[in-house]
Amino acid sequence: MNRVVSLGICLAGVSLAGCFAIGNSQVPIGTVSVAAPRPSAERALVIILPGFGNDATDMKDSGVAEAIHQSWPEADVLLASATFGYYRDGKLVPRLHEEIVQPARRNGYARLGAQSATSL
User: Fold this and answer.
1) Residue 21 and residue 80 in contact, taking contact as beta carbons nearer than 8 Å
2) I need a surface site. Which of 54, 81, 86, 106 has the fewest CB within 10 A?
3) Are strands 75-80 and 31-34 parallel, antiparallel or unpaired?
4) Residue 105 sits in which domain range?
């Protein structure tokens, strides 16, 4: 492969990397909460983790919470910006537990579920 083609491929990769939400695992996990359209007495929370290169805002804009509410209108949805940086640094599981799961339990959620937006 000649140098011009190699350089072009490298520059394209670097340019595309700027489009992805890598994230900083040193800061708290950002969230976007979407309330249940039909709340129930037994509070339920669905925690959605982003696909690679996305964050909570991307998931909100793409209608992830609305899709969940079509099947489970009684559940609140929490879109978590647990971006690639948390995975890369090995901090996702403890930070998710400390910053999202434990506070949800303290706030009265009886049912919790987690799902990746890439599998929806």
Assistant:
1) no
2) 106
3) antiparallel
4) 21-119
Number of domains in the chain: 1
Q: What is the pLDDT of residues 66-107, one digit of tens each?
A: 999 999 999 999 999 988 888 889 999 999 999 999 999 999
Token pair 């700027």: residue: 18
DSSP class of residue 35?
-
Structure tokens, 27: 């800061």
**Domain presence at residue 15:** no
Cut 0.85: pTM above it:
no
25 falls within a domain:
yes
Q: Residue 36: count other Cβ atoms within 10 Å of its Cβ.
A: 19
